[in-house]
């Protein structure tokens, strides 16, 4: 299936690993040119070296919590490739604390990474899409719908704000034929998840999905790339859950084990 992305330019923030890296890879496989950014230059260099085996890649170390840094990055991408057709806001961070434990600096950090970066990314991408149209895809989280009480308390509310922001920007950008959509991943086997969450908890969450496993990053990347493509040309102000059915039933174990086996 040709998604019509050949020759298009796709920007992916947080593109050095995890979901962002997987999205960049799928865009390249579809014939797009890709620009990635992240904070750590060495990780970016390594990721870009791997991705360049598939197609044209521009990379730059960027602090996406800074508005001007986003605007400068967008300008550099435009100068390098001559266009920006897709912008994927994928950066996020989680703080493993209860709500009462966050101090002022930590709240600012979480807000900057999880929310402000998306605002600035939408602004930056739109500057180069408003004359000819384009697609912005935001990456939220299942935590926007199913809060994680007692651990990483701010993460869910900030991701929920991204869902609302997606609809708001979709309304503001529609007259320019710029679509804005959102993906809510469930538990995904990213380096961040594996490094910060115990195997016991990962297994428990996998068991709470209807599919009884975590997602591979590419399973999140494919819906992102679909939403960015012309195959989703009538979709905007839309948020899609990609969670293996994590939020859809109260008794996934019964559904999987009992109903599936007939015992």
UniProtKB/TrEMBL annotation:
Family indicated by similarity: Belongs to the short-chain dehydrogenases/reductases (SDR) family.
Position of the signal peptide: none
CDD domains: SDR_c
Pfam families with a match to the protein in the record: adh_short_C2
Keywords annotated in UniProt: Oxidoreductase
GO molecular function: oxidoreductase activity, acting on the CH-OH group of donors, NAD or NADP as acceptor
Protein name: SDR family oxidoreductase
PANTHER family associated with the record: SHORT-CHAIN DEHYDROGENASES/REDUCTASES FAMILY MEMBER
Gene3D superfamilies, A to Z: NAD(P)-binding Rossmann-like Domain
A biological-process GO annotation: bile acid metabolic process
């Amino acid at each position: 299936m040709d998604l019509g992305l050949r020759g298009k330019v796709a920007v992916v923030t947080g593109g050095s690993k995890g979901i962002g890296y997987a999205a960049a890879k799928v865009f390249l496989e579809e014939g797009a040119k890709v620009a990635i950014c992240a904070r750590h230059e060495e990780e970016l260099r390594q990721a870009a070296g791997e991705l360049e085996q598939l197609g044209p890649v521009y990379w730059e170390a960027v602090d996406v919590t800074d508005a001007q840094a986003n605007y400068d990055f967008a300008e550099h991408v435009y100068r390098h490739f001559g266009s920006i057709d897709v912008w994927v806001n994928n950066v996020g961070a989680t703080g493993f604390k209860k709500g009462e434990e966050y101090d002022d600096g930590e709240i600012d950090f979480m807000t900057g990474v999880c929310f402000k970066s998306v605002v600035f990314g939408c602004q930056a991408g739109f500057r180069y899409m408003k004359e000819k149209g384009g697609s912005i895809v935001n990456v939220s989280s299942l935590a926007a719908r199913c809060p994680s009480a007692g651990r990483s308390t701010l993460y869910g509310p900030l991701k929920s704000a991204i869902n609302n922001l997606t609809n708001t920007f979709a309304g503001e950008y529609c007259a320019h034929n710029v679509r804005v959509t959102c993906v809510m991943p469930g538990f995904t086997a990213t380096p961040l998840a594996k490094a910060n969450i115990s195997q016991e908890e990962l297994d428990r969450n996998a068991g709470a999905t209807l599919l009884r496993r975590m997602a591979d990053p590419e399973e999140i990347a494919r819906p992102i790339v679909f939403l960015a493509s012309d195959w989703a040309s009538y979709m905007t102000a839309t948020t899609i859950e990609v969670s293996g059915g994590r939020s859809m039933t109260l008794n996934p174990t019964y559904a999987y084990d009992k109903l599936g086996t007939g015992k």
